[in-house]
Amino acid sequence: MKLYMSVDMEGITGLVDYTHVDSSAHNYERSRQIMTDEANYVITTAFEQGCKEVIVNDSHSKMNNLLVEKLHPETQLINGGVKPFSMVEGLDNSFSGAIFVGYHARASMKGVMSHSMIFGVRHFYINDIPVGELGFNAYVAGYYGVPVLMVAGDDQAAKEAEELIPNVTTAVVKETITRSAVKTLTPTKAGQLLKEKTEIALKNRALVKPLIPPEAPLLRIEFANYGQAEWAHLMPGTEIEANSTIVRYQAKNILEAYQAMLVMTELAMHTDFC
Which residues of this protein are catalytic (predicted)? Predict the structure, then answer.
């Protein structure tokens, strides 16, 4: 069995605000250690359950957060940027399943540090279905026939995963109070939970089907202001919907939609707010 892992940061145990996930802030270094430990709990259990290969993709911000020297020695790590497929770089049809660790809720929803790629996004839609990073990444996995077996993060990420993916295993390491406050497990207790849930997820993998994306999906991104929509509209093939901040793009498949999303969100970040 070959396992793919995408590891984000906002859904990691005990992390609550930008001081934990911004590399220039004072809590970041201790947070990346917790992130690395959390990944290791899942990786170690996967090998104990018979996985022959585990590929881990660092999926937060500049994507160079995980401490490679402290990962399980048999792990292969994908890190750094720019990655053509960002949070799902390296994912293909050779994997038996995928696990998402450290995930958070989508933009505009309740959940600690909830967002979708950038803070200027209100909603992503695939054929009018609202998705966040979790859902978009699961669709890419589904394109390759790979089921998402487990999602670990806060309670709202777990809720989002369960609504999208029948029979998915979820590991809730913290419960949302507000967008910047949680009731959290300690890293030790979270580690025990992650081990238990990973074992369950791998044993029940036959119960989870890939989240198959629609053919020729219509991608729609609603931005926070019109300036962001204007920047995103610089990408050829897009149009701004009338009287809105929604930019749409008709994609050939979910892979093209994903890369279109990456381009549009990168462009939108050039917007000045003054």
Answer: 115 (nucleophile)
What distance lies between CA 78 and its chain's CA centroid? 15
Rounded CA separation 1/139 (Å): 21
pTM: 0.97
- 154 has binding-site annotation: no
Residue 182 contacts residue 244 (beta carbons within 8 Å)? no
**176-205 pLDDT tens trace:** 999 999 999 999 999 999 999 999 999 999
Catalytic site includes residue 270: no
pLDDT in tens, 142-168: 999 999 999 999 999 999 999 999 999
Is 92 annotated to bind a ligand? Reply is no
Which residues have a Cβ under 8 Å from the Cβ of 101 and sit 6 or more positions away? 5, 6, 7, 8, 11, 12, 38, 39, 42, 152, 153, 194
Nearest CA-CA partner of 158 in 172, 178, 142, 148: 172
Options 20, 26, 72, 115, the catalytic residue: 115
